[in-house]
Task: structure prediction
Amino acid sequence: MTNPVNRQWLLARRPVGSIVPEDFSYSESTPPEPGENEVLVRSLYFGFDASQRIWLTDHGGYLPAVGVGDPIRTMGIGQVVASRHPGYAEGDLVEGFLTWQDYNIARADGPMPLRVLPRSDDMPMTWHLGVLGVGGLTAYFGVTDVLKVGPGDTVVVSAATGATGSLVAGICKAMGADRVIGIAGGAQKCRWIVEHAGYDEAIDYQSEDIGARLAELCPEGVSAYFDNVGGDMLDTLLLHMAPRGRILICGAMSSGYTDVQLQGPRNYMFICVKMLSVQGILLTFYRDRLQEGVEQMGRWIAEGKLNVAESVVEGFEHAPSLLPTLFTGKSPGKLVLKVADPV
Ligand SMILES: NC(=O)c1ccc[n+]([C@@H]2O[C@H](COP(=O)([O-])OP(=O)(O)OC[C@H]3O[C@@H](n4cnc5c(N)ncnc54)[C@H](OP(=O)(O)O)[C@@H]3O)[C@@H](O)[C@H]2O)c1
Result:
């Protein structure tokens, strides 16, 4: 029997500014052999995350930079085809760090070990990349553990159509928040977050004055801000926070993640004079509590408290053209690429 082909998307050069097709090169090889304590995983789905753009910079961010000539790192779902690790068996479906190639060698150590997915799962497999994966669990721990949202809270969420933001309103409501306001780009997306994602109000960052709308909608100030965007939007929110308000720094989409060194907020003295609390989040810090998040999110879905949105594109060849759409506009919810079916 001939060896299967291992299709790969490699980093051809470090992108400058926005990602372009020439930043990637296509290659084929034969699947590698797993060493001791390693597993060979066949890729089924790739999830798209803005942090992938940071990993293509020289600094890499919270994980090492992807080397020029190496396959692009991604969160993904795969199937174990050979295992030399006692925690994984041939045929297991797993979720975790993969790369843009058909066959990946994975280890059980590292910041987020591969998770074995339950067999009798009645949810779509792709949800383990979205609502039960990075975006959903970051939304869960951000709202419940960092912002500690509860009754009396007026919450504002930026990038409210994203894989994370599209779930934050539902979680805030489940925790008893009074009101949740989302910020999104364009009238259609603003309508979507109110009709499908549980938001009470929407602000269109492309056509409205965010400060004026916040003054109108939150005359008492914003008690909690879930920030996915940073930049000027964060500066505006700092002016409209309530005294002792809480801010969660989850992401900085406005930067395009072309560099890890970003300009801080100009209005940062309002953190002082309003006695604000500002805290970041990184899901890897919750690696020992992921199952708690998966179970609670599952319960809220079953109770109809969360609406899950995703768009699944099919075809390995589309990976490079999908990544930049996170920054230029895509459908609401989680963006996933289907690469193969499980056996
Ligand atoms: N810290 C963590 O552990 C962690 C985990 C997950 C995600 N994150 C971060 O959370 C953020 C959102 O990620 P996601 O996966 O939820 O989103 P996503 O599904 O990748 O979608 C991107 C979102 O960003 C918005 N956006 C893009 N450019 C923008 C700009 N210039 N100004 C305002 N909004 C912009 C889009 O909104 P429109 O379509 O309305 O323009 C869209 O909602 C990212 O920064 C990501 O890095 C962090």
Observations:
- Residues 49-51, 134-135, 138, 159, 161-165, 184-185, 189, 205, 228-229, 250-254, 281-283, 326-327, 329 surround NAP (CB under 6 Å).
- The first strand starts at residue 6 and ends at 11.
